[in-house]
Amino acid sequence: MERTRWYKDKVFYQIWPRSFKDGNGDGIGDLLGVYEKLDYLKELGVNGIWFSPIYPSPGADCGYDIADYMDIAPEFGGMEAFRAVLEGAHERGMKVLMDLVVNHTSDEHEWFQKSRQRIDPYTDYYIWRPAKPDGSLPNNWDSNFEGKAWTYDEVRGEYYLHLFAIKQPDLNMDNHLVREEVKKIMRFWLDMGVDGFREDVITYISKKEGLPDDHLFPIYKGMPNYNHGPHIHEYLAEFKADVWDHYDIFTVAEAPLVSPELALKYIAEEGGQIDSMIQFQCECADCLFTDYIPMPFSLVRMKKAFSDWQHKLRGKAWNVLYIENHDHPRIISRYGSEKFWKESGKTLAASYLFLQGTPFIYQGQEIGMLNWKPRSIEAYRDVQSIYNYHHWSPKLTEEQKLRKLWRSSRDSARTPVQWDNSPNAGFTDAETPWMDVNENYHEINVAQQLADPDSILNFYKKAIGLRKSLKSVRYGKYIEHFPLSPTLYCYTRELKCEKLLVLCSYSDKPQNLKVPKGYDLSKGSLVLQNYASPLPGILQPYECRVYLFK
Ligand code: GLC
Ligand code: CA
């Protein structure tokens, strides 16, 4: 079947289901809630949804530990609710992507239960090893979430590898039977009408032969031996030939630690296996490698990440654009300013929504939700945050630990979406939601912003509408101006006579307005702005402006 490139004209919205909207009053977000909000999404202008996992799962990693790949969790409404949402989305012109999590399963998956008992054909579905002769772990790798990457299983009498939580054993993708299972799962959803997959840590699925110790990385030990492993392209090419090529779909790889050069091996339109990629480089504008090693925000680093990917993929591959997702704290709290909340929320939107690629918006981002700041570890739900908290140096005070969590935890961005100012932000009718809502919901919520023409939400609507109306945003050349400026992000998109100029201030003080050579503001029309009355020659704090020249 011909693979068209429909995804290049879409704007996706990421739903992290537990916290999106509770439709049946049990305190947990679900697909009934999603169904209720499909018109809201359509109004926003998005025409695609990526669902973080909604399969049956014990919830050790909020659904990224899957116990059954071919069903929908009862707490989300089961298969019936999913079919209704899928149909409802399609009726509204929205595509639907599922999260494909096949680096690992839940330890409660039937395959693992049989594998630990050596019941064929499941015996080698996972990565089992005995201890080293000296009794130590099979190798020195770290898990991403909970200490070392190996846990001993009494039933089998061996260790199993888990690159994430203890309850997330890694699949053995070198076993062709496992690859056949993955294909079966993909066909199951595609035959139902799903439009593609976001593929969770897909670059981890092929481990280096012999699983050697890692002597390179001081943290996340082992990563060079499993990220972009030896058979990765072979396995992806197999998935493409056997499954993806038979459907008109969009495939997106999640890829930690990847350069644009390396990305092209996966996503080049000529010779790649996948359509696009979620990479983490822009996330590193305020941290080193992980949110848990924070650094001051650097606009220059953010711009460099954006520009590198714009330049190096141009004409060869297609970008995924995002600034927020469920794995990182909220962006205004990080790159913007809580003080200039509204202004910086809009500036952040304008900074990425006019780049070349397919934008993704994470739930709550469109209303400028901020980091959550609970007073106790008891409020946290995320396995990684809880593990880290209990393993930080005992020298840290309670206050210091909480501050570290506010700044770094994934839960900072996982609180329920703030729909209105009724109890629990209108997220649920239950007395107690599964996770606390952010206390600021009286000031920040959807209902208030729908009614306010000047809201962040209405800015997103306008920006998305504008993006859709401009050919230069899809096809135009990207040029960054003043790359070394620490406070101004300025870029242009040019296609024949259509030119778009985007100016974004990242300063909490007024700054001189700089305009790139060849651009005369008096000849353009100001098509998007976050200050009602822009001043001549000056950008006000976190001001952004978008000019169109024809
Ligand atoms: C990806 C997901 C993250 C999950 C991890 C393990 O990074 O985005 O939420 O915890 O993979 O599946
Ligand atoms: Ca519910």
Describe the structure.
The protein is of the alpha/beta class. The chain has 15 helices and 20 strands. An 8-stranded parallel β-sheet has the order 9-8-7-3-2-1-13-12, with helices on one face. Helix 10 packs parallel to helix 14. The longest helix is centred in the middle third of the chain and has 17 residues. It starts with 11 loop residues before the first strand and ends with a strand. The mean pLDDT is 98. Calcium ion binds next to loops.
Secondary structure layout plus pairing:
Elements: E1 12-15, H1 31-36, H2 38-44, E2 48-51, H3 78-91, E3 95-100, H4 110-115, E4 128-129, E5 150-153, E6 158-161, H5 176-192, E7 196-199, H6 232-242, E8 250-255, H7 260-267, E9 276-279, E10 287-288, E11 290-294, H8 299-313, E12 320-321, H9 331-334, H10 341-353, E13 358-362, H11 383-391, H12 398-408, H13 446-451, H14 456-469, H15 471-475, E14 477-481, E15 488-495, E16 498-505, E17 511-512, E18 525-529, E19 538-539, E20 544-549
Parallel strand pairs: 1-2, 1-13, 2-3, 3-7, 7-8, 8-9, 12-13
Antiparallel strand pairs: 4-6, 5-6, 10-11, 14-15, 15-16, 16-20, 17-19, 18-20
